[in-house]
């Protein structure tokens, strides 16, 4: 209940925290999975690139909505 009240107050912070948790969980999973160092580095690089792409797309989506509000 407390977490849901926080999210109502600051949606951006809630979304950023959620995405950060997803990235952290995925990174920990990638690190503890038995693989070679090369495979782990490639996996982390791919994960980072996907996260960057998602963040960029979300940023463009939000800024597009904000520009629509200004009109």
Quick structural summary:
This protein is mainly α and 71 residues long. It has helices spanning 2-9, 11-32, 37-70. The termini are far apart.
What does this protein structure show overall?
Helix content is 90%, strand content 0%. The protein has 71 residues and is mainly α. Helix 1 packs across helix 2 and helix 2 runs antiparallel to helix 3. The radius of gyration is 16 Å and the shape is elongated.
Helices and strands in order:
Blueprint: H1 2-9, H2 11-32, H3 37-70
Helix pairs in contact: 1-2, 2-3
* Average pLDDT score: 77
Low-confidence stretches: none
Q: Main beta sheet: strand number and arrangement?
A: none
SSE string, helix = H, strand = E?
HHH
Helix-and-strand structural type = mainly alpha
- Please count the beta strands (DSSP E, at least 2 residues each): 0
Total of helices:
3
Percentage of residues assigned to helices: over 70%
Strand content: under 5%
| Shape annotation | elongated
Distance between the termini: 37 Å
C-alpha Rg, in Å?
16 Å
């Amino acid at each position: 209940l407390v977490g849901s009240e926080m999210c109502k107050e600051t949606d951006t912070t809630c979304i950023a925290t959620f995405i950060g948790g997803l990235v952290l969980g995925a990174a920990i999973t990638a690190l503890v999975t038995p693989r070679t160092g090369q495979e782990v580095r490639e996996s982390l690089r791919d994960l980072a690139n996907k996260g960057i792409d998602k963040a960029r797309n979300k940023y463009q989506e939000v800024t597009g909505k904000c520009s629509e509000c200004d009109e």
